[in-house]
Amino acid sequence: MRVEFRFYGGAAEFARYHGGEALIHGPAETGKTISALWKLHLCALKYPNASLVIARKTQASIYGTVLRTYTEKVLGEQAMVTAYGGGKPEWFDYPNGARIWIAGLDKAGKVLSAEHDVVYVNQTEELDLADWETLTTRTTGRAGHMPYAQTIGDCNPSYPSHWMYNRPSLRMFYSRHEENPMLYDQATGEITVQGQRTMSVLDALTGVRKERLRYGKPAQAEGAVYDEWDQSIHLIYAGKVPKCERFIAAQDWGYTNPGVLGVWAIDGDGRMYLVRQVYQTGRTIDWWVETARALQAEFGYFEIVACDPAEPAYIAAYQQAGLNARAAENAILPGINAVKRRLAEKRLFVVRDSLRRADESLSEARKPYSVEDEFASYVWADKIGKEMPVKEHDHGMDMVRYAVMAIEKGTGPIRFTENPFYA
Length: 423
Hints:
By secondary structure, this protein is α/β, with parallel strands linked by helices. It folds into 2 domains: 9-201, Rossmann fold; 231-409, Nucleotidyltransferase, domain 5, CATH 3.30.420. 30% of the residues lie in helices and 17% in strands. It has helices spanning 9-16, 32-46, 66-75, 129-136, 193-203, 207-213, 231-234, 285-299, 312-320, 332-344, 360-364, 371-375, 395-409; strands spanning 21-25, 51-56, 82-84, 91-93, 99-104, 118-121, 150-155, 171-174, 235-236, 246-252, 259-266, 272-280, 305-307, 325-327, 348-351. A hairpin with a 6-residue loop joins strand 10 and strand 11 (259-266). Helix 10 (332-344) crosses helix 13 (395-409). It starts with 8 loop residues before the first helix and ends in a 14-residue tail after the last helix.
């Protein structure tokens, strides 16, 4: 079979490396993911009966992202590889007996409890050190179908103290925009038309997102409002949410800018869990009403829907739809301080994959498209006086603040409801 793919620069070094742990690291759009997938695909073609894994932090996040890249850009029309599991495949079989499994660390099951030749992790920066170390115990060489065994991954830059920058056994390979043939002609070095479009988007980024996604630098936002935020603590699996009988919602309105609706579960000790978030641009109030009603039907009665007070007519539309919508407490600094206290006390959490559908326009523009995206880049305008945050990419942060203040101030009479999902 003829293979039409070439590795360049850091990706070529990564593909040739046979050591136990390796990452390909770099800014956005340098071809990290497709290079890692081709490495895995070539292993499957070369080594009969090889056992290989495509993994991500959560299984639900695999199908619309890395698995699409694998099926569309690596496999393409190759009929020789057979998928098993319907619309959400569980594995792919090759004619020589090699198999590529699909797994999420939140649903590890039998796949990640077995021995494999290579485990590949998409977006490794999402993993905790314990996650990575667990995976390395699955690639010790006992599978024995290849002359080497590896735990590998691709990653975007993260904060400087992230474990992946401080692990001696992990070899890091670096990719650059100039090494991606979609962006730069590898013979002449000239930027392509697609490269001009891509780089213009990345050049328009600001702050910590530009440092990471444009320049590939590990960066922490200077003057971060929520310096208490730690994704290894506050970003949790759905299975870690205890049984909750209280639910509230909060809404920040938007159209050109994103609107954000969050559903929060409240446990018996008053801890808050963001169990569902909707983060979308270009949506009318009618769409938000239907979405909020559907979420209330799913989770049960909302004690309150704490809404951005800037749009009284929208609040009235929610009320007419049977939602207990009220204007949120909008004092910014008291709200920020209340959120900071909850983060510091480990009383506020965001559930991974609480965002079920990403806004593609935001994703393509490399703008935040989830609440957890905003925590890392929400900064003070005056980094010394800390009088007010920058009014940019803060729609999820406003929603969080409204929800926290609703709980702190009290939502009114509580009507308990049994929820089958969080039980």
